[in-house]
Write a structure and sequence with these properties.
The complex is a heterodimer of chains A (about 300) and B (about 55). Chain A contains 14 helices and no strands. With about 300 residues, chain A is mainly α. Chain B is mainly alpha-helical and about 55 residues long. Classes of the chains: A mainly alpha (about 300), B mainly alpha (about 55). Chains A and B meet through helix 3 and helix 5 of A and helix 1 of B.
Chain lengths: ~300, ~55
Amino acid sequence: MALIDEHKGYEATASGARVEDYLALLKPRVMSLVIFTALCGMLVAPGGLHPFLALLAISCIAIGAGASGALNMWYDSDIDAIMSRTRNRPIPSGRMSKEEALAFGLILSGFSVVTLGLATNWVAAGLLAFTIFFYAVIYTVWLKRATPQNIVIGGAAGAFPPMVGWAAVTGDISIDGIALFLIIFLWTPPHFWALALYKRGDYEAASIPMLPNVAGDRETQNQIVIYSVLLSLVAFMPALTGLVGWVYAVPAAVLGLAFSTLAVHLRLAEGVEMRKRARRLFTFSLSYLFVLFLALLVDALLFKSWGLF
Amino acid sequence: MAAKPEQVQTSDEALKASRRKRSIALAIALGVVAIVFYALTLVKLGPAVFDRGL
């Protein structure tokens, strides 16, 4: 007798999922960015943490982010089946049931929050719990399908990890932690709107109200310029508050100028050329965030750990 | 019209193999959690963990 008699779309039974499918639910690529930004938040924060606790805290933040990814895939399996980028995810491809993904997401959420609280402090744990709630409920369930501003508000979920990392060390939320939050918060809209500009058809097919399909390309290009300029300015906050020095400020200025220039460049284009420039901005925005946080890390480590400046 | 998602072909053997892999992964994960909590207790309490009246 067959263990599973039939497969109909994503109504698979529990037994078909592979280990790789569970890992895919955690959105490993998003997780790697979360690990990196949380690590930066943790290393630039004043004070220290036992290396084992720091490793455990980073793992908890990564698992919490993965859990919210699993909850997102549980809720969004219907639209994931429509979009080319997402249709081979475990649920729409029929390898896993929705219930399995929900249970996996909830268990990992609880585990990551409680373990972070026990390992570091309950401010960090509370922030992590709020981050998961924000991404899974406020963004995925509520805003994503309801408003073209979904990315702006939902982007906050992705901006919390460095703040959680900071809180894990200090036990509080300071202006520097908020500055790190603001950088990612303002980076998210131009990053995703650039993607939406050249993947517009996908979002339309899935009826997700992204800014280009609701307000048009021109308005999206304008918003990208506004957010890019704001981001370039806010990126100086860590230097202005004295958290870091010129090792961070110089790359921040150069990167901010490049980001804003690419955004203006995109604003001046139409049609195929616009999509090409949108893709270029999207790719650049990934490097932007990575290099900016790397500069933050290097500056803070040079200053804090080795006292070079 | 976009192509249909890749569907899974499942035979008894493939299902058994994936279940076995999942069971092994779960066992490893539980083992790691036990070790992590043991180490966490030692790190948080330090030598005091051994200092108790019996």
